[in-house]
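Annex B. Sample input.
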Amino acid sequence: MSRDPNLNSYLFFEAVARRGTLSKAADELSVSPSAVSQQIKLMEQQMGLKLFRRQGRALSLTLEGEQLFQASSAAIRILRDARRNLGQTRDSYRLALRVSPSFGVRWLGPRLSDFVARYPEWKLRVDAAPDPTDFDREIIDLDIRYGTGDWAGLSASPLTRDVVLPLCAPGYRDRLGTQGLTAARLIDSARALCQWDRWLFETGIEGVANDKSLLIDRSSMALQLALDGTGVVLESLTLAARELATGALVPLCPDQPALEFPAYWITCPHRHVSRRAVRVFSAWLTEQAETHEAEVAALLHGFGMDLRQIEPGRA
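Annex B, continued. Sample output.
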């Protein structure tokens, strides 16, 4: 009864078929010609087929041998390519990341060049989308999520704390004069964990009409309205630190504390945590977040502002 040869037999067969003689195949495989001959004979016995015609020292394939050679050479080529690619992954990694659009553009985007400079061989895919990743259906390694960090079934490591305060263009502040917030048009970000109602409650400020005449779905849009002098936005320095540093936006109420709370998290399934690509990128993110938080603290100190820690979602 015929039985399947082992993988080594296919390697010997492919080398003989490609080189045309036992001696040339033996040189390539670093074995003796007799070892190659024995392997081919055993293979023919196991398969119950004649694979070669022998013409002196030269060998030519039979019809069955030609069919087997086409299949075995293709399979061996696939294995060799896979081995080469596995060798390359020691120094090259792929990472698929999801972030919210505003965070991706305003926080992550300006910092990514640093990561690329450190790891030029890495292949990154950044998916900027408002919806969280469904890790069971999507090929994403990690997700930087905005929220309270309590997502069932996921690892959630704190990335950076949010610092929220009223911001507006210098010209708009000047037009308000001493009336301040009582005459201001308030801009709210619909997805923010801390909105105007919460900020007014925490600071104890009364007499401010908050009818949410401008409730914006995206922080980038809300910030742009403030930059254009349309109103006062209650927004995060995670997204607006650059505008505060350049003077494009200024604190409207520097005598009131900025509110601070955990907001951005590195999230992924627990099975992803041990992946080297995830570990390296997460460590880099944490380093960038520490630098960012130090810069924010320096900015607030420059305006003489204090920080007050709160728990998001609780008034």
